[in-house]
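Backbone shapes recur. Consider a single case.
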Amino acid sequence: MKETLSKIKWIAGRIYPSLPSLILIVMLGALTSLCGIFRALILKKLIDSAVNSQDGLIAKFAVVFALILFADIILQAALTLIKANKHLQISNSIQKRLFIRLTEAKWQNLVKYHSGDILTRLTNDAEALTNTIVNTIPNVISLGVMLIGSFVTLLFFNKFLALVALGLAPATVLLSRIFARKLRNLFKSSQQAEAKYRSFLNESIQNMAVLKAFCLEGTCTSQVENLQSKKAKLVLSRNRINVFSNSVFSFGSWLGFFIVFCWGASNLSKGTVTYGTFTALLQLFGNIQGPFAALAAAFPQIVYAFASAERLMELEMLEPDIG
């Protein structure tokens, strides 16, 4: 627990300088989530107005629907631009800070790390951490807004369907938690394998004349194939866990959709719900299931970020060369 808190504190230190921009990203993401909820409600009214041949209301709700779509497009465009700019700034900041620490570190401590390992940490690990700060964390917050808003709205329409949506989806989140430690270990192992692979390529290219002089081309090729094989096994293991987790969620999601569809179709035939309500229920259910799917996908990214933070912290804690 203490180790986890130290990682959170370290990551928070990387977030703090960019906090205003990240808050703006979260706010824009939350607004896009609210657009999704309002879109479902306006679409309900638009369809009901069309079914009842209420021409005046059709025009009114069509205009509102178009404005919501336009606002969503503008918000998404602004969000993309701000994220791209902030991603570059934070990534450069992390890499620059680490580079300075490396230049200040004692030589006897620095030589313990191969240049390929250091390069992997400065690039892959820094990228994984930056992606989580700029994309994953703000997305989780905005998805939470959509989840809560859609659930409350669906609860207003039908309590049973709201509880069905809320009951089926969390299974994947719990499943992801079970695999958290394994995912973290696999990620760290794959990063170490990538570092060894880069180190070997770097050394081989630098000493190409020696390799040719002693006719070691075949030996080096075999070693490259061996390192690639180890990398591939680790990556495939990570992918298998992610695919299994996503497949379980997809089953739960489609099961929930099937229940909502059957309930809506049955009540539609009885005349107890309108076409617009039926459409809104399907959209709102999707707005609840979607965030859970995204949260399940985001969980491995957060795990990878913590593993990357641990590797980057290790470099930052190298003892400086005071003399």
Observations:
- The mean pLDDT is 81.
- The first helix runs from residue 2 to 15.
- The radius of gyration is 26 Å.
